[in-house]
Amino acid sequence: MELPVISNSAPEASGGGCSSSGCGTAPDALGHLPDHIRSKVQDHPCYSEEAHHYFARMHVAVAPACNIQCNYCNRKYDCSNESRPGVVSEVMSPEQAVKKTLAVAAAIPQMTVLGIAGPGDPLANPERTFETFRRLSEEAPDIKLCVSTNGLSLPQSVDELAKHNIDHVTITINTVDPEIGAKIYPWIFWENKRIFGVEGAKILIEQQQKGLEMLTSRGILVKVNSVMIPGVNDEHLKEVSKIVKAKGAFLHNVMPLIAEAEHGTYYGIMGQREPTPLELEALQDSCSGDMSMMRHCRQCRADAVGLLGEDRGEEFTLDKIDEMEVDYATAMVERAKVHQAITSELEMKRALKAAPKFEAEAADKPATRPIRIAIASKGGGVINEHFGHAHEFLVYEVDSAGHRFLGHRKCTAYCMGDESCGDGETVLGQIIKSLEGVEVLLASKIGFEPWADLEKAGIQPNGEHAMEPIEEAIRAVYDELAAAGKLDQPAAAKAAA
Amino acid sequence: MALEITEVCVGCYACEPLCPNEAISAGNPVFTIDPNKCTECLGDYDKPQCAEICPIEAAIVDEIGDPLNPLGSLTGIPLHLIEEYNTTGTVVRS
């Protein structure tokens, strides 16, 4: 059954229809883009909600130096237990990075994208970054290259970036106002001096905006990342979204601040709070009026390997890749076959979506309200994860006309070991808190204890749709609730979690 | 006169290319400054470049051991909270 999809943004006359995938995710983030841009990004796991189920990415941590300080970052990066940007276990030389990339590309043919994202700023390490790009574009021409930057050194790097045939750049832009900037960036290093406060933030903002304009004028695609910091830049990001769209950025990715005291960051230690999932969704919704929003970002580490949401870095540590012999010419043949198979599958799915549909006969139905449904999934677009094993839940908004993907809610899995399910009520309490606003939860299986607690918190657990495609299951659940008359009124007040 | 890098260095490479005297070398676990080459940037820059870009407080000290970037000077975190974090690995907020 095909469903129309509720758009995040105002509908525009876009050629080619949508690009939704088997995971039932909303195609709207890319659907409105002009064809020439969409064709460049629709197979990129970090830009395309659909592609990230099929294609993998990796980051190589060759860029440890940074030229600015952010209040959400701690430059101590030696922790393998933390999963957040700017944190890596080992910094590599360009040579090691190339070796690792070739080893991963041979072992994981779905890996199509190599990004340099830190753990510092790639453009503050120009020699290491560009040496890596130069060698990879020669030795592995079938890998797309990406770079992510704070933008301070961007204007002077644009020529070099264009030379390496990098067609996507991500700039982190948290503000366009130096006064706000001073609350996010305590200092920058500029022209041989450390510059503090508003003065430093002003230079950073000017360089970011200049770099953005230079890249888009050359036809290099720019995605803008913003960190949502409640009380600092949350309202302001709506304006940022308008400005960066006007200057040609094709995608805006608003991410939640990560700030815990254990991380030793300024925000973590000073008690700056993180946004709640509902606050993040609301801000993404308000920004989406102005441009396409990205909803599936996992805020990867600067050394992540594999599909988004997974990290196979442990399989490719320096000592392990030292022992691997890679025949890349042979690997490339195999890779091409795998890419072809995935592309065919995606094209078939896109064609199915684009096929004409019957108009929904909604006219005579009574209006029912939208609800949020959370899904436990290991990937592949089906409900195939036990509640207790889930490290994240996919959240969809569903109404009588369609559905849209809102984002991921990360959590600690309820079952940590084989036998230690329900290890402490705090974990379950945190999961329930992370599911704020959700009314139904679909998993392949849900245990007796969490079931009762979820119900108490106003979240209806449901294991009846195990192994079903997400799109079909959420439609069936919604229609059933609507038919039972449970969606006529506003959401009932929930018991406190 | 020469500057020195202490054991809190995280080895981020930021200082190394900036040194006008090529006095800094990468090392494991910390980078080192060759005291025979270091001029503290006198004659080249207003301020020592390694200390200007170093993101880690107290990682670069002068001859008598005084840090060029004292605790709290780069992050703005109050000293008592830095101390609490350094001893317990977190900060408990009441």
UniProtKB/TrEMBL annotation, chain A:
Pathway, per record: Cofactor biosynthesis; Fe-Mo cofactor biosynthesis
Ranges in coiled-coil conformation: none
Molecular-function GO term, any one: lyase activity
UniProt entry keywords in alphabetical sequence: 4Fe-4S, Iron, Iron-sulfur, Lyase, Metal-binding, Nitrogen fixation, S-adenosyl-L-methionine
One Pfam family here: Nitro_FeMo-Co
Superkingdom of the organism of origin: Bacteria
InterPro entries (alphabetical): Aldolase_TIM, Di-Nase_FeMo-co_biosynth, DiNase_FeMo-co_biosyn_sf, MoaA_NifB_PqqE_Fe-S-bd_CS, Nase_CF_NifB, NifB_C, rSAM, rSAM_sf
Keyword Iron-sulfur: yes
CDD domains named in the record: NifB, Radical_SAM
Obligatory cofactor(s): [4Fe-4S] cluster
All copies of domain Radical SAM core, residue ranges: 52-303
Family from the record: Belongs to the radical SAM superfamily. NifB family.
Chain's role: Involved in the biosynthesis of the iron-molybdenum cofactor (FeMo-co or M-cluster) found in the dinitrogenase enzyme of the nitrogenase complex in nitrogen-fixing microorganisms. NifB catalyzes the crucial step of radical SAM-dependent carbide insertion that occurs concomitant with the insertion of a 9th sulfur and the rearrangement/coupling of two [4Fe-4S] clusters into a [8Fe-9S-C] cluster, the precursor to the M-cluster.
Official protein name in the record: FeMo cofactor biosynthesis protein NifB
Organism: Azoarcus indigens
TrEMBL record, chain B:
MF-aspect GO terms: 4 iron, 4 sulfur cluster binding; metal ion binding
Coiled coil, from the record: none
Keywords: 4Fe-4S, Electron transport, Iron, Iron-sulfur, Metal-binding, Transport
Family matches, as SUPFAM superfamilies: 4Fe-4S ferredoxins
Superkingdom, natural source: Bacteria
Cofactor: [4Fe-4S] cluster
Name of the featured protein: 4Fe-4S dicluster protein
Domain 4Fe-4S ferredoxin-type: 1-29
Organism: Azoarcus indigens
Lineage: Bacteria, Pseudomonadati, Pseudomonadota, Betaproteobacteria, Rhodocyclales
NCBIfam families cross-referenced by the UniProt entry: di_4Fe-4S_YfhL (NF033683)
InterPro entries in the record: 4Fe4S_Fe-S-bd, 4Fe4S_Fe_S_CS, YfhL-like
